[in-house]
Amino acid sequence: MEQIKMRINGMHCGKCVSSVETVLKAMPGVEVEKVEQGEAVIRRDPQAAPDDVIRDALAARGFDLVRSGG
Hints:
alpha+beta; 2 helices; globular
């Protein structure tokens, strides 16, 4: 498991934060540490939850993963 901090566009309110948290928690290989407006910190198995899978799941809910990294 690796920890990454993600910058996410499109989060404007508490409901957005809740939505992003729900998406991330539903993903196999992802443990959510913190979600705030504009960012999230997770621990993930990079093989089970690569960036493109996370990006697609967030995009389906109207959010844009701008950057992720350690």
